[in-house]
Amino acid sequence: MIIQCPFCGAKYEAPPGRKFYVCPYCGTVVSEGKTYESVYIFQPRVDKTAAFQAALNLKPTGSPDDLPQATPTAAELHFLPLYLYHVSFQPLTELETDAAALAMSKPPVELPRGYRFPTRWKTPFKPSLEKIGVFHQPDLDPESAFYTLGEVVEEAEAYAAVFKTKVTVSWRFEGIAYFPVWALEYEYGGRRYAAAVDATDGTVIQMEYPLSRRGRAQAAAFAATAALGSAALGALTALWAGLRPELGALGGLIASTGAAVRLAVFAAARRGRYKAEAKL
Predict the structure, then answer these.
(1) What is the pLDDT of residues 102-137, one digit of tens each?
(2) DSSP assignment, residue 243?
(3) How far is 83 from 142, CA to CA, in rounded Å?
(4) Rounded to whole angstroms, how far apart are CA atoms 237 and 133?
(5) Residue ranges of the domains in the chain?
(6) What sections of 118-244 are H helices per DSSP?
(7) 216-240: string of b/e by CB count within 10 Å (b at 16+)?
(8) Which residue, among 236, 114, 122, has the nearest Cα to 179 in the 3D structure?
(9) Contact by Cβ (8 Å): 252, 226
(10) What is the pTM of this model?
(11) How far from 28 is each of 98, 194, 249, 264, CA to CA, in Å?
């Protein structure tokens, strides 16, 4: 079937039977005869120079001291499509909240698991703004995207559980917004690395970086210390409990295996990876 977008006027073909139809040109959503003309944008307030400064001055674990002197090689501003929702948890009305979910399945930059996008400080979208970056169109429908907000629902349910109350989750689709992210590349020691920076406030979302010799050596030392410390603690615990200390030491070593292996892998690598915490 052919649909004409009520916002930008473009015509596009869409399969029949869907609850939501998204214009591939401007992102306007039509659902069951209702038009959602609420299209917004988060203004980029961080230019590429400031974005590189934020990334190269981050100083993640094990990075070389002279990383700020790395050479920027490429920068591209991407606008990621977000669906906006108003979420209710009946009967606890105090838990009502606004939420935003990524509306595309394969974003151009890697995002940390559970990364939360803001819902405030957006402004109305204007088609003329498409010249300032690469705009990506949604390929998920609002229903599917909502289920990626599992942590929002889990937090509300955990709160309700304190009061021994079961909540019913419902949501209202509020529109679409475009969120700016800088995709950066830089060179250090003859190798190239990538980073992604939030263009609204300069937060480094994720970053690849070179590992210095000192950083790898420290990681190796931490791995050995973690293993020996766990073994010693296990031995002391076993001795206190009247058991053979060597069995406790073995148990401590086994318990610390996961952390020690991660540190050992980090020590052997030449490329580190930083990911921001889930943003609230």
Answers:
(1) 998 899 998 887 788 888 888 887 767 767 888 887
(2) S
(3) 7
(4) 59
(5) 1-36, 38-209, 213-275
(6) 142-146, 150-162, 213-240
(7) bebbeebbeebbeebbebbbeebee
(8) 122
(9) no
(10) 0.73
(11) 19, 32, 62, 49
